[in-house]
Amino acid sequence: MTAVDNHVIVASFGGQIRTVYGHLRKFLHLHVGQHVVAGQQLGFTASSGHSSWPHLHFTAKLGLTPYEPFAGPCRRGPSYWASQPAMPQEPYARDFTLSPNPFGGRKDPPWDEAVRTGTYVAGDRDVYFRVELGFFGGGPMHVTLVRPDGSLALDADRQTELQGIRNTWADFHERLVLDQTGQWRIRLAAGGRTLVDAPFTVVGSLSTVRNRRPNPVSVSILPEHPTTADVLQCIVSTSLVTEDPDFQIMRYRYRWFVGKKRARAITSAGLSDVLRHRLAHSGQTVRCKVTPSDGRLSGPAASASVRLG
Question: Which of 43, 69, 86 is the last residue of a domain?
């Protein structure tokens, strides 16, 4: 822990390579000189120190000189990652929120104490919505509201006032006549590209409004044909926009099993988790079971398994 942030520095190859994991949560369960292995959890992502948004600040150094491990526009040549993930190139929605109340203050990211909903009562209503965006350079957003019978309740361009730099978001407010019960849809598009296509429900009375279970997810384990030399990664596939019908903030309960023995359990907002290196041996079956939750109700669990070669 320093004045800058809470961070972990991992030295490898005799100290020639150092990787820095910054802005972590307090109370790290590590100590200087401790030996760590691939897949071991080093901490929890947070916003400690000089930071305005929860994120992982990752730095790779060769000696004391930072270097770019990704191959691409910033550095030509081969990737320094064992398996470099694909990087987004187009704007996309990182999250979407509907609320009956205005945003602002701690109702904005990164704290997000907004009242979220996926259900409105029929009538003249204030509908507030916010989209969090990645790789979005600004410009107008085309907003479409579609009634259950397919007719348009709104079809208009709205200007965006961006609120960040790396991760940005835009807020909107519409006064709508919700004159049909059933499933409505809200669509946001920019530059001819649809970024949000989300359903919400209009009901006849407040007494019928209920919190609903999160939507189902699917799970996979990578690599598909692992050996004991691999670190196994459990990946959740879901929509970043409609993972919950009430647009609540999601979390996922990961449970790893080696054979019949549970090897790891953790609840995280992340869409992936890893199993520590060499917890499983050749011939053993490894299973990852994931249960989505909105903090009050759980969705159906999903699982995947692989056998180590």
Answer: 86
- Contact at 8 Å (CB) between 94 and 167? yes
Sign of the CA dihedral running 180, 101, 154, 190: negative
Do 6 and 81 have their domain in common?
Answer: yes
**What is the model's pTM?**
0.92
1-37 confidence digits (pLDDT tens): 566 899 999 999 888 999 999 999 988 788 999 999 9
State how far the Cα of 257 lies from the Cα of 242, in Å rounded to an integer. 29
Is 125 a domain residue?
yes
- Tokens 């709205």 locate to 158
Q: Of 33, 51, 86, which residue is a domain's last?
A: 86
Cis peptide before 292 (omega within 30 of 0): no
- Per the structure, the complete domain to which residue 62 belongs is given by 1-86
Phi, psi of 258 (to 5 degrees): -110, 110
